[in-house]
Amino acid sequence: MPAKHGLVLSSIGIGTYLGNADEATDLSYTRAIVRAVQLGVNVIDTAANYRFQRSERAIGEALKILANEHGVARETVSRAFRQAWGVDARRYRCELRARNAWLQITTTTHSLASIAMATAFADQAHMTHGVRALTGRSPGAWRERPRRS
């Protein structure tokens, strides 16, 4: 899928949802992510609540291994991301989650708490903060707004 500045997302990704919250599973995830990236995968699905944040740490470890293999410093990757997308990776991820939450808030009747969990926010209050920062309005205010048919 074409993206901004000629960047391309792979057509297949790797997920980090299932598995035990233990060292053996962490190591398996790290190895699988390293191998997937070596084979061209650049889409990794994760969220803070996957395996009690262990999935995100496994991804971080895999990225350290890959950066060390290729002699690329973390700062170089961060700078390249910022140049390509105009924001740092953390901000990009937060805005993306808030956009996904806002979309569900305005197009579904799911509870705000379930939308918060589905979009990887820690809780409804965390989602409210993210949506308000993005749109200037709370999720409740968006729900009160009449929907277009």
Question: What's the arrangement of secondary structure elements?
Answer:
Elements: E1 14-15, H1 23-38, E2 44-45, H2 54-69, H3 74-85, H4 89-107, H5 112-118, H6 124-135, H7 139-144
Parallel strand pairs: 1-2
Helix pairs in contact: 1-2, 4-6, 5-6
Written overview of the protein:
The protein has 149 residues and is an all-alpha fold. The chain has two domains: 82 residues, no CATH class; 56 residues, Arc Repressor Mutant, subunit A, CATH 1.10.10. It is built from seven helices and two strands, in the order βαβαααααα. Strands 1-2 form a two-stranded parallel sheet. Helix 1 links the parallel strand 1 and strand 2. Helix 1 crosses helix 2, helix 4 packs across helix 6 and helix 5 crosses helix 6. The longest helix has 19 residues. The two termini are 30 Å apart. The relative contact order is 0.09. The model has no long low-confidence stretch (mean pLDDT 84).
